[in-house]
């Protein structure tokens, strides 16, 4: 692999294998400590290795290799936690919408149609594309010629509006 030269690591280590072993151990400790789902640790450390190899030319001080690698691993663990949180929220909302449409009787479908009808046309279209037609965010963005981030934000706000409308309906009945 020849990732390190003799001058790149502290004298306490005798070989590149020892340095890489220590590096792996340190990154694994950081990742396990930071991750909510400990089973993801191996994947995160592997991704960190890829980043380190891709960005090794950006390391200014070779004696800072281990802290630099730990920082990369820590950031990737944070990203993994954030991704898990978004997946969990998304799965929950999809389950709610799937449950709603599968148990609706005709009069309930009319209520849903009424709620959707109160939304602005763009929001209604986005929600229908996402939850009725099952399109992915990037497919919706391409179809509507919008940035993916805009599509995600509008869908999020649209779901929030729908939830507010449902709560208001429940309070008035």
UniProtKB/TrEMBL annotation:
Residues 110-162 form the RNA polymerase sigma factor 70 region 4 type domain. Pfam families: Sigma70_r2, Sigma70_r4_2. Keywords: DNA-binding, Sigma factor, Transcription, Transcription regulation. InterPro entries: RNA_pol_sigma-70-like, RNA_pol_sigma-70_dom, RNA_pol_sigma70_r2, RNA_pol_sigma70_r4_t2, RNA_pol_sigma_r2, RNA_pol_sigma_r3/r4-like, WH-like_DNA-bd_sf. Residues 24-85 form the RNA polymerase sigma-70 region domain. Belongs to the sigma-70 factor family. ECF subfamily. This is RNA polymerase sigma factor. It comes from Cohnella silvisoli.
